Amino acid sequence: MEPLVASNGERINLLAAVKDDYGGVIVELKAPMDPRAFEMSLKLSISNWRQQGIRGVWIKLPIELVSLVQLIVEEGFWYHHAEPNYLMLVYWIPATKHTIPVNATHRVGVGAFVVNDQKEILVVQEKIGSLRGLGFWKIPTGVINQGEDISTGVIREVKEETGIETEFVEVLAFRQSHHSFFEKSDLFFLCMLRPLSFVIQKQESEIEAAQWMPIDEYAAKPFVRKHKFSKYLLDIGTAKLENRYSGFSPICMLPAFVDGQSYLYVNAGDLEQKSGHGNYPSNRMINIPETRKSSRFFFDLSLDTWQFRTIIEGLIRINQAQERTVQD
Protein backbone atom coordinates (compact mmCIF):
# COMPACT_ATOMS: atom_id res chain seq x y z
CA MET A 1 0.00 0.00 0.00
CA GLU A 2 1.08 3.55 -0.71
CA PRO A 3 0.83 6.11 2.13
CA LEU A 4 -1.31 9.22 1.52
CA VAL A 5 -2.30 12.09 3.80
CA ALA A 6 -6.02 12.52 4.50
CA SER A 7 -7.73 15.90 5.02
CA ASN A 8 -7.27 15.59 8.77
CA GLY A 9 -3.54 15.04 8.36
CA GLU A 10 -3.67 11.32 9.13
CA ARG A 11 -1.38 9.13 7.02
CA ILE A 12 -3.42 6.45 5.26
CA ASN A 13 -2.27 3.67 2.98
CA LEU A 14 -3.94 3.32 -0.41
CA LEU A 15 -5.12 -0.14 -1.34
CA ALA A 16 -2.72 -1.98 -3.61
CA ALA A 17 -4.28 -2.56 -7.02
CA VAL A 18 -3.35 -3.73 -10.50
CA LYS A 19 -4.90 -2.37 -13.67
CA ASP A 20 -7.11 -4.60 -15.80
CA ASP A 21 -7.51 -4.45 -19.59
CA TYR A 22 -10.66 -2.33 -19.51
CA GLY A 23 -9.76 0.83 -17.63
CA GLY A 24 -10.37 -0.64 -14.20
CA VAL A 25 -8.36 -1.95 -11.27
CA ILE A 26 -8.34 -5.19 -9.28
CA VAL A 27 -7.74 -5.24 -5.53
CA GLU A 28 -6.88 -8.61 -4.04
CA LEU A 29 -7.04 -8.47 -0.27
CA LYS A 30 -4.95 -11.04 1.58
CA ALA A 31 -3.72 -9.84 4.98
CA PRO A 32 -6.07 -9.09 7.91
CA MET A 33 -6.84 -5.38 8.37
CA ASP A 34 -8.31 -3.25 11.10
CA PRO A 35 -11.87 -2.39 9.93
CA ARG A 36 -11.49 1.33 10.56
CA ALA A 37 -8.14 1.50 8.79
CA PHE A 38 -9.56 -0.46 5.86
CA GLU A 39 -12.60 1.83 5.61
CA MET A 40 -10.38 4.91 5.41
CA SER A 41 -8.06 3.27 2.88
CA LEU A 42 -11.00 2.28 0.69
CA LYS A 43 -12.56 5.76 0.74
CA LEU A 44 -9.27 7.45 -0.10
CA SER A 45 -8.43 4.87 -2.76
CA ILE A 46 -11.76 5.41 -4.52
CA SER A 47 -11.14 9.16 -4.52
CA ASN A 48 -7.67 8.59 -5.95
CA TRP A 49 -8.96 6.21 -8.64
CA ARG A 50 -11.66 8.70 -9.62
CA GLN A 51 -8.99 11.37 -10.21
CA GLN A 52 -7.05 8.89 -12.36
CA GLY A 53 -10.09 8.18 -14.53
CA ILE A 54 -10.43 4.59 -13.35
CA ARG A 55 -13.83 3.11 -14.18
CA GLY A 56 -14.47 -0.26 -12.58
CA VAL A 57 -13.02 -1.43 -9.26
CA TRP A 58 -12.92 -5.14 -8.39
CA ILE A 59 -12.26 -6.36 -4.87
CA LYS A 60 -11.43 -10.02 -4.38
CA LEU A 61 -12.23 -10.72 -0.76
CA PRO A 62 -11.03 -14.02 0.74
CA ILE A 63 -13.43 -15.82 3.02
CA GLU A 64 -11.12 -15.12 5.99
CA LEU A 65 -11.86 -11.38 5.64
CA VAL A 66 -15.64 -11.71 5.38
CA SER A 67 -16.06 -9.22 8.24
CA LEU A 68 -15.15 -6.43 5.77
CA VAL A 69 -18.10 -7.12 3.45
CA GLN A 70 -20.45 -4.60 5.04
CA LEU A 71 -17.89 -1.79 4.86
CA ILE A 72 -17.29 -2.50 1.17
CA VAL A 73 -20.99 -2.66 0.30
CA GLU A 74 -21.66 0.60 2.13
CA GLU A 75 -19.22 2.30 -0.28
CA GLY A 76 -21.38 1.31 -3.24
CA PHE A 77 -19.92 -2.07 -4.19
CA TRP A 78 -22.17 -4.96 -5.15
CA TYR A 79 -21.69 -8.71 -5.30
CA HIS A 80 -20.50 -9.99 -8.65
CA HIS A 81 -19.80 -13.66 -7.96
CA ALA A 82 -18.58 -16.01 -5.28
CA GLU A 83 -16.39 -19.10 -5.19
CA PRO A 84 -15.76 -21.46 -2.27
CA ASN A 85 -12.84 -19.39 -0.96
CA TYR A 86 -13.58 -15.82 -2.02
CA LEU A 87 -16.22 -13.21 -2.81
CA MET A 88 -15.80 -10.81 -5.75
CA LEU A 89 -17.32 -7.34 -5.37
CA VAL A 90 -17.36 -4.57 -7.95
CA TYR A 91 -17.93 -0.80 -8.09
CA TRP A 92 -18.45 1.59 -11.01
CA ILE A 93 -16.91 5.03 -10.47
CA PRO A 94 -18.16 7.16 -13.42
CA ALA A 95 -21.61 8.76 -13.25
CA THR A 96 -22.72 6.69 -16.22
CA LYS A 97 -24.40 3.35 -16.76
CA HIS A 98 -21.88 0.67 -15.93
CA THR A 99 -20.46 -1.77 -18.48
CA ILE A 100 -19.39 -4.41 -15.96
CA PRO A 101 -19.84 -7.87 -17.54
CA VAL A 102 -22.39 -10.03 -15.79
CA ASN A 103 -21.40 -13.13 -13.88
CA ALA A 104 -21.37 -16.48 -15.69
CA THR A 105 -24.86 -16.99 -17.08
CA HIS A 106 -24.84 -20.66 -18.08
CA ARG A 107 -24.19 -24.06 -16.61
CA VAL A 108 -22.90 -26.68 -19.06
CA GLY A 109 -24.42 -30.15 -18.97
CA VAL A 110 -23.76 -33.26 -21.05
CA GLY A 111 -25.64 -36.41 -21.97
CA ALA A 112 -23.98 -39.57 -23.29
CA PHE A 113 -25.43 -41.64 -26.12
CA VAL A 114 -23.50 -44.91 -25.80
CA VAL A 115 -24.44 -47.97 -27.87
CA ASN A 116 -22.68 -51.34 -27.98
CA ASP A 117 -22.32 -53.77 -30.90
CA GLN A 118 -25.63 -55.48 -29.97
CA LYS A 119 -27.49 -52.20 -30.57
CA GLU A 120 -28.05 -51.77 -26.84
CA ILE A 121 -28.03 -48.32 -25.32
CA LEU A 122 -26.48 -47.53 -21.93
CA VAL A 123 -29.19 -46.22 -19.58
CA VAL A 124 -29.53 -45.44 -15.89
CA GLN A 125 -32.14 -44.77 -13.21
CA GLU A 126 -31.28 -41.96 -10.80
CA LYS A 127 -31.25 -42.39 -7.05
CA ILE A 128 -31.33 -38.63 -6.40
CA GLY A 129 -32.89 -35.65 -8.19
CA SER A 130 -36.34 -35.04 -9.63
CA LEU A 131 -36.53 -38.50 -11.29
CA ARG A 132 -35.65 -40.55 -8.22
CA GLY A 133 -38.02 -43.36 -7.39
CA LEU A 134 -40.04 -42.99 -10.62
CA GLY A 135 -38.47 -45.89 -12.49
CA PHE A 136 -37.51 -43.75 -15.47
CA TRP A 137 -34.63 -44.91 -17.64
CA LYS A 138 -32.43 -42.22 -19.18
CA ILE A 139 -29.01 -41.77 -20.74
CA PRO A 140 -26.14 -40.86 -18.37
CA THR A 141 -25.97 -37.11 -17.79
CA GLY A 142 -23.94 -34.68 -15.72
CA VAL A 143 -22.34 -31.27 -15.40
CA ILE A 144 -18.99 -30.17 -16.79
CA ASN A 145 -16.48 -29.03 -14.16
CA GLN A 146 -14.64 -25.72 -14.30
CA GLY A 147 -11.76 -25.94 -16.76
CA GLU A 148 -12.99 -29.28 -18.14
CA ASP A 149 -13.53 -29.92 -21.85
CA ILE A 150 -16.89 -31.28 -23.01
CA SER A 151 -15.24 -34.34 -24.54
CA THR A 152 -13.41 -35.10 -21.28
CA GLY A 153 -16.31 -34.33 -18.97
CA VAL A 154 -18.83 -36.59 -20.67
CA ILE A 155 -16.36 -39.51 -20.57
CA ARG A 156 -15.86 -38.86 -16.85
CA GLU A 157 -19.61 -38.76 -16.17
CA VAL A 158 -20.21 -42.11 -17.89
CA LYS A 159 -17.33 -43.68 -15.96
CA GLU A 160 -18.58 -42.31 -12.64
CA GLU A 161 -22.21 -43.37 -13.11
CA THR A 162 -21.77 -46.75 -14.80
CA GLY A 163 -18.10 -47.77 -14.64
CA ILE A 164 -18.02 -48.00 -18.45
CA GLU A 165 -14.87 -46.80 -20.21
CA THR A 166 -15.57 -44.86 -23.42
CA GLU A 167 -13.98 -42.73 -26.10
CA PHE A 168 -15.48 -39.54 -27.44
CA VAL A 169 -16.96 -39.53 -30.96
CA GLU A 170 -19.01 -36.38 -31.57
CA VAL A 171 -21.24 -33.68 -30.18
CA LEU A 172 -24.56 -34.54 -31.80
CA ALA A 173 -26.70 -31.60 -30.72
CA PHE A 174 -27.16 -29.07 -27.92
CA ARG A 175 -30.07 -27.45 -26.14
CA GLN A 176 -30.28 -24.07 -24.40
CA SER A 177 -32.77 -23.58 -21.59
CA HIS A 178 -33.31 -20.89 -18.96
CA HIS A 179 -34.08 -20.63 -15.23
CA SER A 180 -32.82 -24.15 -14.67
CA PHE A 181 -30.46 -23.78 -11.71
CA PHE A 182 -30.73 -20.81 -9.32
CA GLU A 183 -32.01 -18.67 -12.22
CA LYS A 184 -29.04 -19.60 -14.42
CA SER A 185 -29.42 -20.76 -18.00
CA ASP A 186 -28.28 -24.17 -19.12
CA LEU A 187 -26.44 -25.53 -22.16
CA PHE A 188 -26.88 -29.28 -22.61
CA PHE A 189 -24.68 -31.14 -25.11
CA LEU A 190 -25.74 -34.54 -26.43
CA CYS A 191 -22.57 -36.52 -27.15
CA MET A 192 -21.95 -39.84 -28.83
CA LEU A 193 -19.38 -42.06 -27.14
CA ARG A 194 -17.95 -45.41 -28.19
CA PRO A 195 -17.82 -48.03 -25.40
CA LEU A 196 -14.43 -49.55 -24.62
CA SER A 197 -15.68 -51.78 -21.79
CA PHE A 198 -19.04 -53.41 -21.16
CA VAL A 199 -19.30 -54.61 -17.56
CA ILE A 200 -21.41 -52.13 -15.61
CA GLN A 201 -20.46 -51.02 -12.09
CA LYS A 202 -23.06 -48.47 -11.08
CA GLN A 203 -22.36 -45.51 -8.83
CA GLU A 204 -23.96 -46.47 -5.52
CA SER A 205 -24.40 -42.92 -4.23
CA GLU A 206 -26.36 -41.51 -7.20
CA ILE A 207 -27.51 -44.34 -9.49
CA GLU A 208 -30.34 -46.73 -8.60
CA ALA A 209 -29.83 -49.00 -11.61
CA ALA A 210 -27.84 -49.15 -14.86
CA GLN A 211 -28.00 -51.52 -17.79
CA TRP A 212 -27.53 -52.10 -21.50
CA MET A 213 -31.03 -51.94 -22.99
CA PRO A 214 -32.07 -52.78 -26.59
CA ILE A 215 -32.73 -49.52 -28.41
CA ASP A 216 -36.21 -50.64 -29.50
CA GLU A 217 -37.12 -51.46 -25.91
CA TYR A 218 -35.88 -48.08 -24.72
CA ALA A 219 -37.76 -46.30 -27.52
CA ALA A 220 -40.97 -48.01 -26.40
CA LYS A 221 -40.74 -46.72 -22.83
CA PRO A 222 -43.68 -44.40 -22.00
CA PHE A 223 -41.34 -41.70 -20.68
CA VAL A 224 -39.36 -41.63 -23.94
CA ARG A 225 -42.48 -41.67 -26.12
CA LYS A 226 -44.21 -38.88 -24.19
CA HIS A 227 -41.20 -36.73 -23.34
CA LYS A 228 -40.36 -34.81 -26.50
CA PHE A 229 -36.81 -33.97 -25.48
CA SER A 230 -35.92 -37.60 -24.72
CA LYS A 231 -37.45 -38.72 -28.02
CA TYR A 232 -35.40 -36.15 -29.93
CA LEU A 233 -32.22 -37.34 -28.26
CA LEU A 234 -32.97 -40.91 -29.22
CA ASP A 235 -33.92 -39.98 -32.81
CA ILE A 236 -30.69 -38.00 -33.28
CA GLY A 237 -28.52 -40.77 -31.84
CA THR A 238 -30.25 -43.41 -33.95
CA ALA A 239 -29.82 -41.33 -37.09
CA LYS A 240 -26.11 -41.09 -36.35
CA LEU A 241 -25.87 -44.88 -35.93
CA GLU A 242 -27.52 -45.28 -39.34
CA ASN A 243 -25.16 -42.73 -40.98
CA ARG A 244 -28.05 -40.34 -41.64
CA TYR A 245 -26.67 -37.60 -39.41
CA SER A 246 -23.33 -35.91 -38.78
CA GLY A 247 -22.32 -34.23 -35.55
CA PHE A 248 -19.38 -32.10 -34.53
CA SER A 249 -15.87 -33.44 -33.96
CA PRO A 250 -13.28 -31.65 -31.78
CA ILE A 251 -10.12 -30.17 -33.24
CA CYS A 252 -7.47 -29.13 -30.72
CA MET A 253 -6.60 -25.44 -31.03
CA LEU A 254 -4.21 -22.89 -29.57
CA PRO A 255 -6.30 -19.68 -29.37
CA ALA A 256 -4.70 -16.39 -30.35
CA PHE A 257 -5.82 -14.31 -27.35
CA VAL A 258 -6.02 -16.64 -24.33
CA ASP A 259 -3.65 -19.09 -22.69
CA GLY A 260 -3.99 -22.83 -22.99
CA GLN A 261 -5.61 -25.10 -25.53
CA SER A 262 -9.22 -25.24 -26.63
CA TYR A 263 -11.37 -27.27 -28.99
CA LEU A 264 -13.20 -26.17 -32.12
CA TYR A 265 -16.14 -28.50 -32.81
CA VAL A 266 -16.77 -28.83 -36.54
CA ASN A 267 -18.94 -30.88 -38.88
CA ALA A 268 -15.88 -32.37 -40.52
CA GLY A 269 -17.71 -34.54 -43.04
CA ASP A 270 -19.77 -31.74 -44.54
CA LEU A 271 -16.81 -29.37 -44.47
CA GLU A 272 -14.73 -31.79 -46.52
CA GLN A 273 -17.55 -32.52 -48.95
CA LYS A 274 -18.47 -28.90 -49.60
CA SER A 275 -14.95 -27.47 -49.68
CA GLY A 276 -13.37 -30.19 -51.80
CA HIS A 277 -10.08 -29.70 -49.96
CA GLY A 278 -8.36 -32.68 -48.38
CA ASN A 279 -9.49 -34.92 -45.57
CA TYR A 280 -10.76 -33.26 -42.43
CA PRO A 281 -10.87 -35.07 -39.11
CA SER A 282 -14.07 -37.05 -38.65
CA ASN A 283 -15.30 -38.62 -35.40
CA ARG A 284 -11.97 -38.21 -33.61
CA MET A 285 -9.66 -35.56 -32.26
CA ILE A 286 -6.59 -34.77 -34.30
CA ASN A 287 -3.79 -36.33 -32.35
CA ILE A 288 -0.78 -38.44 -33.07
CA PRO A 289 -0.18 -42.00 -31.84
CA GLU A 290 0.29 -42.71 -28.16
CA THR A 291 4.03 -43.22 -28.71
CA ARG A 292 4.31 -39.62 -29.85
CA LYS A 293 1.63 -38.05 -27.68
CA SER A 294 3.88 -35.23 -26.47
CA SER A 295 3.65 -33.74 -29.99
CA ARG A 296 -0.06 -32.88 -29.81
CA PHE A 297 -1.08 -30.44 -32.56
CA PHE A 298 -2.06 -26.85 -31.78
CA PHE A 299 -3.43 -24.16 -34.09
CA ASP A 300 -3.40 -20.37 -34.04
CA LEU A 301 -6.93 -19.11 -34.65
CA SER A 302 -5.57 -15.88 -36.14
CA LEU A 303 -4.80 -17.82 -39.34
CA ASP A 304 -7.06 -17.17 -42.29
CA THR A 305 -9.26 -19.96 -43.70
CA TRP A 306 -6.88 -21.02 -46.47
CA GLN A 307 -3.88 -21.19 -44.11
CA PHE A 308 -5.90 -23.10 -41.53
CA ARG A 309 -7.15 -25.59 -44.11
CA THR A 310 -3.66 -26.15 -45.52
CA ILE A 311 -2.20 -26.81 -42.06
CA ILE A 312 -4.96 -29.27 -41.15
CA GLU A 313 -4.53 -31.17 -44.42
CA GLY A 314 -0.77 -31.44 -43.91
CA LEU A 315 -1.07 -32.52 -40.29
CA ILE A 316 -3.68 -35.15 -41.10
CA ARG A 317 -1.37 -36.65 -43.74
CA ILE A 318 1.47 -36.71 -41.19
CA ASN A 319 -0.84 -38.24 -38.59
CA GLN A 320 -2.01 -40.96 -40.98
CA ALA A 321 1.56 -41.77 -42.00
CA GLN A 322 2.62 -42.04 -38.34
CA GLU A 323 -0.33 -44.33 -37.58
CA ARG A 324 0.62 -46.62 -40.45
CA THR A 325 4.18 -46.70 -39.15
CA VAL A 326 3.03 -47.69 -35.66
CA GLN A 327 0.71 -50.37 -37.03
CA ASP A 328 3.55 -51.79 -39.13
Would you give an account of this structure?
Keywords: Hydrolase. It holds the Pfam family Nudix_hydro. Belongs to the Nudix hydrolase family. This is Nudix hydrolase 2. One of its GO terms (molecular function) is hydrolase activity. The chain has 328 residues and is α+β, with helices and mostly antiparallel strands. Residues 281-307 have low confidence and may be disordered. It is built from eight helices and 15 strands. The strands form five sheets. Strands 3-4-5-7-6 form a five-stranded mixed beta sheet. The longest helix is centred in the C-terminal third of the chain and has 23 residues, at 305-327. Helix content is 28%, strand content 30%. The protein folds into three domains: 2-92, Gcn5-related N-acetyltransferase (GNAT) (Aminopeptidase), CATH 3.40.630; 106-241, Nucleoside Triphosphate Pyrophosphohydrolase (Alpha-Beta Complex); 249-327, no CATH class. The chain is elongated.
Short overview:
This protein is of the alpha+beta class. The relative contact order is 0.09.
Number of strands: 15
* Total of DSSP H or I helical runs spanning 4+ residues: 8
What is the spatial order of strands in the main beta sheet?
A: 3-4-5-7-6
Secondary-structure arrangement, i.e. CATH architecture of the largest domain: Alpha-Beta Complex
The helical percent reads 25-40%
Series of secondary-structure elements, N-terminal to C-terminal: EEEEHEHEEEEEHEEEHHHEEHH
- Name of the top-level CATH class of the largest domain: Alpha Beta
Structural class: alpha+beta
| Amount of beta strand | 25-35%
The CATH homology group name of the largest domain = Nucleoside Triphosphate Pyrophosphohydrolase
Radius of gyration: 26 Å
CATH topology type of the largest domain: Nucleoside Triphosphate Pyrophosphohydrolase
Shape: elongated
Q: What is the domain tally?
A: 3
Q: Quick one: biggest sheet?
A: 5 strands, mixed
GO molecular function, one term: hydrolase activity
Keywords: Hydrolase
Domain Nudix hydrolase: 105-237
Family: Belongs to the Nudix hydrolase family.
